[in-house]
Design brief:
Helices cover 76% and strands 0% of the residues. It is mostly helical. The protein has one domain (3-87). The longest helix is centred in the middle third of the chain and has 22 residues, at 41-62. The protein starts with a helix and ends in a 6-residue tail after the last helix. The relative contact order is 0.05.
Length: 93
Amino acid sequence: MTKLLEWLTAVMVVFGVWITIVLGYVQSPLTDKWMHIIIPSPIIFVILFGLYAVFVVLYRVFTFNDCEYAAKELQGQIVQAREDLKQKGFAFD
């Protein structure tokens, strides 16, 4: 199962529970007491997920490592590829 399917499954389960509570299929003394939180909860979840996504992206950007050895190796491979292409008749500008 891919991550997309896992997320979609979780979202559908949460949405299913939410819609049954909102439409009144599940009756409980707590649902009446907490209805002012239950109704806007999908909006709250979207906002919290957005904040989580922003913090994860920023954290990964700030902790991105430079690979000096890999950069030098790649530059060497580029030089080698240019030499091979020049031998085969390709002209670089």
